[in-house]
Every structure is written in C-alpha cells, then in structure tokens.
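Hi support team,

I'm filing this because I wasn't sure whether my run with magnesium ion finished correctly. The job status page said complete, but I'd like someone to confirm that the output block is well-formed before I use it downstream. Pasting the exact inputs I used:
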Amino acid sequence: IIELNGVKKIYQMGTERVHALDGVDLVINRNEYVAIMGPSGSGKSTMMNIIGCLDTPTHGTYVLNSQEVSEMDDNELANVRNQEIGFVFQTFNLLPRVNCLQNVELPLIYSGKRKGVRREMAAQALRNVGLGDRMTHRPNELSGGQRQRVAVARAIVNEPSILLADEPTGNLDTKTGNEIMLLFEALYRKGNTLLVVTHEEEIARHARRIIRLRDGLIEVDERVDDP
Amino acid sequence: IIELNGVKKIYQMGTERVHALDGVDLVINRNEYVAIMGPSGSGKSTMMNIIGCLDTPTHGTYVLNSQEVSEMDDNELANVRNQEIGFVFQTFNLLPRVNCLQNVELPLIYSGKRKGVRREMAAQALRNVGLGDRMTHRPNELSGGQRQRVAVARAIVNEPSILLADEPTGNLDTKTGNEIMLLFEALYRKGNTLLVVTHEEEIARHARRIIRLRDGLIEVDERVDDP
Ligand SMILES: Nc1ncnc2c1ncn2[C@@H]1O[C@H](COP(=O)(O)OP(=O)(O)OP(=O)(O)O)[C@@H](O)[C@H]1O
Ligand SMILES: Nc1ncnc2c1ncn2[C@@H]1O[C@H](COP(=O)(O)OP(=O)(O)OP(=O)(O)O)[C@@H](O)[C@H]1O
Ligand SMILES: [Mg+2]
Ligand SMILES: [Mg+2]
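And here is everything the job wrote out:
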C-alpha cells in the first residue's frame, strides 16, 4: 500500500545541496509492522513526512493505496492526512492553547464524530496512555513525556489504517514506553499498518521488519521473527 | 554546591493540586556526576528548572554555592543562568530565526567574548557534536537529533561549572549519543559538576551517582562505581 520509487529530497542551501533522501525504493504491504532506524540526520523523518503526505519528493514517485500522491487533489490529500493516516511527530506538534482532551479530539472532528462520542473516545485514548488525570491540562502544563503521550493518543484515537510514529518513546521511561508499545501491538493485530522510527533496538524489536537508513539511502531491510 | 531543602512545587489546577515536587532534600557537591531517572511525570524537569534558577519552589529552600537563591537580585540570577550554568533543555529551546552558529554563540556573548573568538569557539563546539557541516542551517533546517546536538553544543561551549542536561540523547542513535557522553566525560574530568536526566540506563551508567524520583520525591540515591 506504500510504494516509494527512486525518491529523493534535495535541499538547496546557497551553493550546497543537502541530499536528505538520495534515492529510496521501498514497498510496504498492508498490515506490516516496520521499524525504521539509522543515525541522526540519515533521512528518517524526511521519509516519514513524505509517506504521511506532509512533504513532497524532489525526484521519484510515491504511490499510496494504488494512487499516485502527486496527482491527488487537495480534498483527497486532506482526507488521507486526517483520516487514513495517524502521525506521531518527533516534535509532538500539539495545539498549545487547548487542553489534552481537545487536542486528542481533533482527528475525531475531521472524521465527523458527534461531540459526546468524540469526548468519550478522546478520554479513553488518554486513559490508555496513562493520562486519565491530566485531561484538562494544556501542553505547557505537562511533562515532556506526557506531551509525547498526548501526541500518541491523538495519532491512534480513530484507529488509522496507517500509523506513522516518529520516535514515539524518546522521552519515556522503559515502563511507560512499553505501555505505548502494547497499544501499537493492539492496533497492528487489528490489521493496520505501522511504521515506527526509533533509535532504541528494544523498541525496534516489537516490529516484524527493520529498515536501516544511512545518508538518505536504505542500507538494510530485514525481516524480524515474531517477538 | 547545590542544596535543596524540603523543596516542593505545587500547581493549583482549579480544585486540584498537582505536587510536581513533594519535599525534595538533596545535596550535590562540587565535581559530582549525577544521573537523574524516574517515570514520566515524576518531577525531573521541575527539579532541574529549580536548580537552574529558571523556576522557584513553592516551599523549601535552594542554596547554590552557599547563597540562598531566593535572596539573589536580578543581576546575580542572570549571571548564574548565563555563565555559571549550562542547560540542555528537554525541548531544546533554540532561537528559530538565527542559524546554529549564532545559537551556540549566545552564551559567549553573555560572557563578553570578542566576536572572532566567539565564532571560533562556537564552530569548534559544533564540530565536537558532529555538526561541522550544518553551521549555517537554521533549527527548522535540521533533523530532531541535530537540533538536540545544537542544544548540547550551546550548553557546553563556555565550559560551565554546572551542566544541567535534561534528556540530552533522547533523539539520538546509540553511536551519536555516545559521542555526546564523551564530551560530558571530558567536562567532568576538568572538575565541573554534571546533572543528567535520562530514561536510558545505558546513559545513566556514565555517571557516578544515580538519583531516582517517583511522584515528586527522591526514592533512591546511590553511588555507582567508576565505569
Ligand atoms: N504548569 C504546570 N501546571 C500543572 N502541572 C504541571 C505543570 N508543569 C508540570 N506539571 C506536572 O508536574 C509533574 C512533573 O512534571 P515534570 O516535567 O517535572 O516531569 P518529568 O519527570 O520531567 O517527566 P518526563 O520524564 O515526562 O519529562 C507532571 O505530572 C506534570 O503534569
Ligand atoms: N529544511 C531543510 N533544509 C536543509 N536541510 C534539511 C532540512 N530539513 C532537513 N534537512 C537535512 O536533511 C537530513 C535528514 O533530516 P531528517 O530530519 O530526515 O533526519 P532524521 O533521520 O530524522 O534524523 P534524527 O534521527 O536526528 O531525527 C539532515 O541531515 C538535515 O540536516
Ligand atoms: Mg528525525
Ligand atoms: Mg521532563
């Protein structure tokens, strides 16, 4: 369902050209659970942003669910970003002026859920990440790891068919991180597709396939036995 | 040189009270290397902000270098924050509109270094964290781990006598994270004092003492053998 062909992302910086992605070929099928690893600056977030339709390649093509993304109109793109794909950003990207509950309700507003239903689904998602007692806090009234968990709750609240998680446990202690991985496993077992960027081998081991990037290219792509 | 006595930080949220810190007693001597661990939300960043003179306790006292911090005037506080203490923030807090080099030069401007000297010290600090080829990039033209490393470079560029680092390797792969720990070790061997918040046991093992928080209180405080 996800197909990158010869994808490059090149930034022009004065006289210098930065190859964030340098020719990536990748096929991911429905209901796969993939970990993406690689050194800092190797292109992981850039690749995730392209897959999530938040950025466009400078070269190559991206086919999502048999449709060429560069040919989608604005409505189709908005639909993909807001309803088909859940995204946990490396920098969380929460709305600062509303509280956790309202932040997590946002994808449910897009999918047309009624107010009472939205409120309960968002509350449950927050309880699932251990933030049942922080629902009325705004992001700046939370710890770093709590903000990260709100970002996770928002990404999975409407059970997206594709979850893209960029370093979802980077600010979490081991126990809390494992709770997040249990939620991901449950989403995966319901038939959804997961791509998780992580720098921790322990976290990567939850996936069934590991892709390693280096300097904007895929260096390794291997199956992992069921954990 | 750092002494917290009965320190509490309590937030009033409507009818609810959140005890971010619930009575912390802590003594840290000159040239100690301390790791601070604990679950997400246990009070680590709150404690670091108080130690870094960026926040004040609601109860208890904080004595820094034999001086009661609550009795310092604005000039003394500014001096402590900008010259004595280096702080790596959990959310980096880089200036978005200037490039890496200018971000790292900031502490050197406060310590009155001349322009040519500042520029060279900042450039060297960036090379030390592996960003020699990213000096003219602005923060939004960098990866998450690269921004984290700029925050580290800025915190250590003028060799502060106290380094406070809140999750300095949370977004870094193992190899890059180890390079940062080598820089910290060098700073420590020069006689400085280091407090590093981390959720990774591997990183904590570089320290000589581990403090574990839970629910705003110190639960464990133990020496670690030289690694
Ligand atoms: N402005 C605020 N208002 C209300 N509660 C707050 C505020 N800031 C922090 N808190 C609460 O204080 C507690 C401690 O926060 P702190 O940021 O110190 O945790 P932490 O140990 O650094 O967590 P993490 O590992 O997730 O970064 C958290 O439960 C948080 O929700
Ligand atoms: N707007 C930009 N302009 C120029 N270069 C950029 C820009 N955005 C990213 N880059 C560069 O592209 C490369 C890849 O960035 P990317 O964010 O994908 O890395 P990453 O693998 O996610 O790293 P990390 O593990 O540190 O988060 C980096 O070297 C970065 O400096
Ligand atoms: Mg990244
Ligand atoms: Mg914190």
